[in-house]
Specification:
Length: 216
């Protein structure tokens, strides 16, 4: 019995709607004003004033919502413009007509279809190291700056990219790295650390192309 009463009590004690709350509050205010001013306005006049105040309040609420929406759109647009200014990319296919000549590549056979693909900067150090399975990118792939620091760490499953992380030279993670076509040569611009500077380089297949890295 007690639990049933509790359920009925919960049903019949639900909170009234906000509009009803506002109207009841305004009626109370008008009643107090009428009493304090010794006014003899009839109930119909009180209801008319309450309706007017409700209409004004509804208009103010609507105007506030419009202002919030406009301000949100402005902030979103400003954010997009800022991101496009700090992080950008464009095609550089004409600059590198032969993609196979961008890096020097050596593949080491490890047996059972396992291979290790090592890309080198032109006449320079190692640019990337990728594990292959039957010719497909599989498991880990790491790429580096020409100065030796790690630039990218990625995980593949049978040539499908699962996840990747890019790093600044100091080891910090590069956030919001642009999502680009890795089969095309791209020119990438990202904010440096500190953000008053910028970094730019040509990029292909997860690797920085020889001699293109600039920080200014």
């Amino acid at each position: 019995m007690y639990s049933g009463f509790g359920l009925r009590k919960e049903v019949y004690t639900r909170k009234p709607k906000k509009l009803f709350d506002k109207a009841r509050k305004l009626y109370k205010e008008e009643a107090l004003n009428r009493f304090s001013n010794h006014s003899h306005d009839n109930p119909e006049e009180v209801r008319r004033r309450v309706r007017k105040r409700l209409e004004r309040n509804a208009f103010k609420d609507w105007l506030l919502r419009i202002c919030i929406i406009i301000f949100s759109i402005f902030l979103l647009s400003a954010g997009i413009l800022l991101i496009r200014k700090l992080v950008s990319f464009n095609l550089h296919t004409d600059k590198y007509p032969l993609k196979s000549a961008i890096f020097k590549t050596v593949i080491y056979e490890n047996g059972n279809g396992d291979q290790l693909k090592v890309d080198y900067f032109t006449d320079g150090p190692k640019a990337a190291e990728t594990r292959l399975k039957n010719g497909l990118k599989h498991q880990n792939s790491e790429s580096f700056y020409e100065t030796g620091e790690q630039f990218r760490s990625a995980l593949y499953y049978k040539d499908t990219l699962i996840t990747e992380i890019h790093f600044y030279k100091n080891g910090d993670t590069i956030k919001n790295f642009p999502i680009i076509n890795r089969d095309a040569v791209m020119h990438v611009v990202i904010p440096a650390v500190p953000k008053s500077k910028k970094i730019e380089f040509d990029f292909y297949d997860g690797k920085i192309i020889t001699g293109t890295y600039k920080e200014e």
